[in-house]
Amino acid sequence: MALPGGLDDFEGRWRIQRRIEDRLGPDARFEGVGIFTRDAEGLRYNETGQLHAAGQSFSATRRYSWRMEDTQIAVYFDDGRLFHSFELTGASRAGHDCAPDRYDVTYAFENWPAWRSVWEVRGPRKDYRMVSAFARE
């Protein structure tokens, strides 16, 4: 099984297909592109695309910074706060508390260079599963 060896393996453009299974509301899907570009500390991640939900379509973006810290990749919000860290293994788990909500993710790299993230999000007003599939463009 080939696995990514580090940040350099993510650099470039990725096609994203995402489905959001919302247990409290309508399901949604996202189609877009994620681009990892090198910066002085690691990689900047910029995602753009279209979110489709309840018969409507919206432009959607998100930005993160990915940094190699020891043997883990640390993912930071755009404002510099730590989001979570994970190992580059076949399947790696991480979590983030954002009171009153909890975000848990599994990264799956066993089909590298295709990979996916699966988020389980729970809170007083949130209950969804978000599956994102990434493939090189």
Shape: globular
For the secondary structure, the number of strands is 10
Estimate the mean pLDDT confidence: 95
Stretches where pLDDT is under 50 for at least 5 consecutive residues are: none
Helix/strand-derived category reads mainly beta
Rounded Rg: 15 Å
Major beta sheet, strand line-up: 6-5-4-3-2-1-10-9-8-7
What summary fits the major beta sheet?
10 strands, antiparallel
Supply the number of helical segments: 0
Give the percentage of residues in beta strands.
over 45%
Q: Helix proportion of residues, in percent? A: under 10%
Query: First CA to last CA: what distance?
Result: 21 Å
Order of helices and strands: EEEEEEEEEE
Q: Give the assembly state of these chains.
A: single chain
How would you characterize the overall build of this protein?
- The chain has 137 residues and is an all-beta fold.
- The protein is 0% helix and 69% strand.
- It has no helices and 10 strands.
- The protein has strands at 12-22, 28-38, 43-53, 56-69, 72-77, 82-87, 91-98, 101-108, 115-123, 126-136.
- Strand 3 and strand 4 form a beta hairpin.
Index terms:
mainly beta; 10-stranded antiparallel sheet
Write the layout of secondary structure elements.
Layout: E1 12-22, E2 28-38, E3 43-53, E4 56-69, E5 72-77, E6 82-87, E7 91-98, E8 101-108, E9 115-123, E10 126-136
Antiparallel strand pairs: 1-2, 1-10, 2-3, 3-4, 4-5, 5-6, 7-8, 8-9, 9-10
